[in-house]
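Figure-free illustration: sequence to structure, shown twice.
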Amino acid sequence: MANEGLIKEAITSYKISRAADKENDGQITFGGLDDTHFDGDSLVTLDNVSEEGFWEANIGALSVDGVNMKLEARTAILDTGTTVILAPSEDAKKIHAAIEGAKSDGHGGFTVPCMTTASVALTFGNTLFAIDPRDLAIEPVDADDPTGDCVSGIVADTEHTDGPRQWLVGDHSESSISCPHAYPICSLEMFSSRTPIFRLMRAIIKFHSPNLFRELFNLFGLLE
């Protein structure tokens, strides 16, 4: 599209809404960024460290309520096609142990109080990106008790699908991605949203690729 002059830049950006807000106001923008939805001052550019074609960056720190969990040498695979955060088992246990009222279901899942105010944050490039508590407490375990326990948005990767030091960061906390070179060699750009509905802007993918839609399908896992 960019090569044919249909859009100004080879950028596709997404704003992914929160289901609980019932706004249904997700947005896709071809050829640029809608700067009404993010804070440009929080922009961070990172190297893509993946050797497998993922959008992956080093995590500087992981914290709960401002306390560093001392989980070092971790990376985050940023995946708009995943709705939760999949963390190494021991990491998930340590994070939830620091959240008051959190419980394990014994099978890799966790619950947190639906009214939790716990702030789980990931740091990239010395910039802290906090997960909105509403995105940590996904949905009530009992639909008739919305102030009881909720399913946690952080799940243990019991099979080490993404490696013992890799976090798979999905829509509930995901930040922006920009790729200025040919896929999969790229840099990642992350920044905070301007609006309270979207704590973090979601996926912004910038390609210098002749087949934008094939790259998008690959990103969302729609192609083999």
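We now fold a second protein in the same way, so the two outputs can be compared directly.
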Amino acid sequence: MMTDTAYRIRPTRWLVAPDADLRIFAEYGYSVEIDDEGGGEYVRVRSHSEETAGEHSISIDTKPWRVLRAAIDAAFDEVAKYADTEPVQLGPEAFQPKSAEPDQTVHFASGSEDALPIGEDESRHSVDTDDRRIEEQMRWQVKAWQSTGEKGRSSEAMAAAFLSKSTFDCYANDYPRDPDDFRRCMQLLDAAPLARGYMHRVADMGIVWAKLVDRWPEIEAEFRRELKGGTGLAPSTFGMMRALYE
């Protein structure tokens, strides 16, 4: 029997459900829980829907989780690309070869007669491909930070915004409240420099976030200046943040 042992509360189950119905077994909710059947702890995700109860339950070990999460994020991003796209109805004429329009402008590279023509559509496709490549590199930088970086509510909220094209209203109140919070957010941007090009996603999380993003360069510059003082204090930065939130 244990004596003089300190006790603490450990959360082992979370409910994900609509705001309109936050009962433990809400019909359209999900439960995320830590379980252990003797072989070590793992995470179980269950759907509460009567139609899927017992069928849609998955168990996830700790080792593959980060890769699984990356795959799930990528899948939802892919779904989001076509969420508002209307299906195209193609008739037989769509499969007939088309000749170039008489007024179509064709450009050749480097004056070579054998060079492939580069039209407006091809140029746009090249730009889109470059944008997707940069975004993919940014996502990997953020995911690397998630594995090794110092995290807090505000920095994790920013990471979630960078990794998704959706707007996360649930993070509206998770903005950094003091210089220490801001430091973790700044470290995220230092670890994932490409994410600076996607700060508009952070601004979309809420009004306060939008104000912060608008003044971010100024606040960051002041914070870095104060850090060089070696005192570990940043009163000027704190004052700028407080003034912004009032």
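Summary for the second example: Residues 13-72 form one domain.
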